[in-house]
Design goal:
Layout lengths: L1 H24 L8 H35 L3 H21 L17 H12 L3 H12 L3 H10 L1
Helix pairs in contact: 4-5, 5-6
Length: 150
């Protein structure tokens, strides 16, 4: 029995010394508690969620504006078509030339534009189309396109 103790006692001491050294040399905790780690993780996830919400809202706004406002090219094309129709009418003598409440260059009188916008906002699209046709002598399709873009 003495021989077993002579072998186990130094082995036990060696294990205790190795365990002490490994715990002493192990990197220390940075002092961040579990609660602080949770708070940091929560703040990081919250910032990511907020950024995603902003991105989605921006995308929705861009889609909405793209659907409600025509692009610059579409506006220019529509204006060119309107000018061509007016020139044809004036040149051929069929129908009245597009004048009335339009300014030189085919632009509307600002008061007419405001009145049309107000009518559309109030839900009177048909009356706005009628007024636009009456004031500018445009055809139904062009007037409807213009009112739908407001």
């Amino acid at each position: 029995m003495g021989d077993i103790l002579m072998v186990l006692l130094p082995a036990g001491i060696l294990v205790a010394v190795l365990w002490t050294l490994t715990t002493a040399l192990r990197p220390r905790d940075t002092g961040t508690s579990d609660a602080e780690k949770y708070q940091q993780d929560l703040a990081r996830r919250s910032a990511a969620h907020y950024a995603e919400q902003v991105r989605l809202a921006t995308a929705v706004r861009a889609r909405l504006e793209a659907n409600t406002r025509p692009s610059q090219n579409e506006q220019q094309q529509s204006q060119q078509e309107d000018h061509a129709r007016a020139a044809l009418r004036a040149h051929s003598g069929t129908g009245a030339p597009a004048h009335g409440n339009t300014l030189p260059g085919g632009l509307f009188d600002p008061q007419l534009a405001m009145q049309l916008q107000t009518m559309v906002r109030d839900g009177h699209k048909i009356q706005a189309i009628k007024l636009l046709r009456q004031e500018t002598h445009t055809d139904l399709a062009t007037a409807k396109k213009y009112i739908d873009r407001l």
